[in-house]
Specification:
Largest sheet: 5 strands, parallel
CATH topology: Rossmann fold
Strand order of the largest sheet: 3-2-1-4-5
CATH architecture: 3-Layer(aba) Sandwich
Structural class: alpha/beta
Strand content: 5-15%
Shape: globular
Number of strands: 5
Number of helices: 7
Order of helices and strands: EHEHEHEHHEHH
CATH class: Alpha Beta
Distance between the termini: 51 Å
Number of domains: 1
Helix content: 25-40%
Length: 227
């Protein structure tokens, strides 16, 4: 029987590609987990369901975590999402405090209940993000801590954090997904969509995504707001 994995799935380009890699290249039996954490782009949760269905997830869970109660981010508080300019290599206001630390911990708990030995995350450090919880050093440290702090680890098992995209460029990530037959029209990446779900086309996430498709000579298949 193939290995079981828990995949963190936001419904965005990176996490969806990571799930395609886990299911279609590695052949793992994947359970997906998404988070309703008070994000302004909550529409991504519907994208996560579409992607999980398309890629044959064994189960898909949405966990509610009120990170808006903590705030400190343009994604969870009444702070404007920066537009029309990619940031420098600093931690941006769209960083959600300790988000991946929290999400990976909950994914590790799910891994114990479904017998998975791998956590898959679409973290990436090549294209601009500035998020400290996407770095390989953090992911390696989390895997060690999770192995020490779980029943699985105490009983001799080991939880591995897989970040297959961590050193890939965004065009390389898109090429991988297309090679695996993934349909990017299912995804949602925008930090500040309109009420109908159309992407703004101006936030960092939209700009990076659009530039990557353009670099490949491809049209981005998602719907953008008409100004």
């Amino acid at each position: 029987m193939s290995a079981a994995a828990v995949v963190l799935l936001s419904g965005g380009l990176d996490s969806s590609t990571a799930l395609a890699w886990a299911t279609r290249r590695q052949g793992w039996r994947c359970h997906t987990i998404a988070f309703d954490y008070g994000q302004r782009h909550r529409i991504e949760l519907a994208a996560a369901v579409r992607v999980a269905d398309a890629l044959g997830s064994l189960s898909h869970r949405v966990i509610k975590v009120d990170l808006a109660a903590i705030g400190g981010s343009a994604l969870t508080a009444d702070i404007a999402v920066p537009k029309d300019a990619l940031g420098e290599a600093t931690i941006p206001i769209t960083y959600v405090p300790a988000r991946n630390l929290i999400f990976l911990s909950l994914a590790a708990a799910l891994a114990e209940t479904v017998g998975a030995t791998r956590l898959v995350i679409g973290a990436n450090v090549v294209d601009y993000s500035g998020y400290p919880d996407c770095r390989p050093e953090f992911l390696d440290a989390f895997a060690r801590a999770a192995t020490l702090g779980t029943k699985m680890g105490v009983e001799g098992g080991r939880l591995v954090v897989e970040a297959p995209l961590v050193r890939m460029t965004k065009p390389e990530i898109i090429c991988l997904g297309l090679e695996l037959g993934f349909d990017y029209s299912l995804t949602h990446s925008c930090y500040d969509p309109d009420a109908a779900g159309a992407a703004c086309g101006r936030c960092d996430s939209c700009l990076i995504r659009q530039r990557a498709f353009a670099d490949l000579g491809l049209a981005d298949p998602v719907r953008y707001r008409v100004l």
